[in-house]
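Protocol step 4 of 6: structure prediction from sequence.
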Amino acid sequence: MAKVKINQPFTLLDTRVGVAERQTVQLEVAKLYTHTPMTIPIEVVNGAESGPVLMVCAAIHGDELNGVEVVRQLLSKVDAATLRGTLIAVPIVNIFGFIHKSRYLPDRRDLNRCFPGSEQGSLGARMAHMFFDLVVKKSNHSIDLHTGAIHRSNLPQIRGDLSCEMTKEMAMAFGTPVAIDARLRNGSLRSEASGLDIPVITYEAGEALRFDALAIAAGLQGVENVMRHLKMLRGRRRKQVHDAVIAAATSWVRADVDGIVRAQVTLGERVSKGQILAYIDSPLGQSEEAIIAPRSGIVIGQQMLPLVNEGDAVFHIAYFAHANSIVEQQLETFIDDIGPIS
């Protein structure tokens, strides 16, 4: 039997967290006009046994709320006495956006395009610099929780640079039916962490400013699956999880005219090349334009607002080397495995 290796105290933001202990720390990133501090709340759970340091963060885009609830539920379940390694849980990264129910910072910058940031730059650059240097660099694995943008909903999916073996392992362990080999975007948390050999996967599910029970349940189960894969939690995954099918490519199908959308397909549905995805009508019904699927695939994202302008993205479709029916079956099994949603 392998000898248990006792963990060591963990320090974050000058706060020492003992073995088998947890502490809440606050990262001050800015002040309001009133000089009231704006702080990012962080919970550190330092396990009894040694192991990886995993950061789980949400709301880098301040209006993406599902991940905030995933982190809350995760913290209610994790026990420092039985944890291996250290969990850094950050439910709200973009505290400004969260307060204002906005994706962006007050200067309209996207915090997820500001990494690694700088001490002398914009508000976003300074926040990114502090968060990256003082928190992200303390981890050796990371899960970044997201949703679709406002009025857009995403099928539960994992995105990551799957050319990195550990990133791919984490993506497969998470357990969504679809994984996307997503290129690294300059200024994103994923891109900058990758440069330091910190593997990051991004979970996308649901819609901004909305709680989605399935997306939250799947996100919580997925994070726990990754933690078990990293041997941070004891035991095997509670349910059989099929490997995600990796998308060969994805693309958005856009509206060619302005009008009112009548969708004919839904998230997770298998579509065939040439199939009608939606109709766009004029308010008086005098004209009608069909949106046609350019290739066969699975709908992984959809605009939920039934009003579009010419050029608006309406459906996000993933294309697979495998038969699309396999992915559809995976999705049905995935929903069944999540179980009843209360």
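Step 5 (inspection) to follow. The domain at 249-319 is CATH 2.40.50.100 (OB fold (Dihydrolipoamide Acetyltransferase, E2P)).
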